[in-house]
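hiii, so i know i said id send this last week but things got crazy w the move. better late than never?? heres the sequnce for the chain we talked about at the cafe, plus the structure i predicted for it. fair warning i was half asleep when i ran it
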Amino acid sequence: MKKTIAILLFFHLSLALALAQTDKKDAPSSNKEDSFRAYLYNKEFEVYLRINFYEQNITVPGQELYGELPGYLGKERNSFCWVITSAKVIDEQKAELALINDYGSEDLTASLTRQNDSTYVLRQLEGSSLKVPKNGRWQKLPKQLELKRK
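okay and structure toks below
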C-alpha cells in the first residue's frame, strides 16, 4: 500500500512539474506583451488610451455595440471617444493604428511609439485631426501627443 501511494505521489508531482514547465515556456515575454497592453494618459488634454493590441478585446464603456476592439482614445468626464478599428504591432517599440470617431464621420491613421517603459508618443499620420470635446467646443489635439503609462 505504501508503495502505491509513493508511486502515485511521484506521478502527481512529475505531472505538476511538467505542466509548470509548459506554462513557463508558452508564457509571453512580459516586456513584449506589455508594450501595447496599457492604460496611457495625457494630463494636459485629459485624454487617455486604453489599448490591448494583442488580444484586441477592449470594449468601449457604454458603447458595447462596437464589440471587442484593439482599444480607444477617450476623454475624461465625457463619453466621446475615438475607436481604434485596427492595430498592427510593428515591433516592441512601434504600432500602427486606424481610428474613427464614435460618430463614424472622421477617420485617421496614426502610430504609437514606446519611448521607454512609461512614455509613449501618438503621432497622427494622415486623415482627420484628432478633436475632443472641451467645455462645449472641439479641442484639437496636437499631431504628436505624449502619453504616460498609469
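btw Confidence is low (pLDDT under 50) at residues 5-30. thought thatd interest u
miss u guys!!
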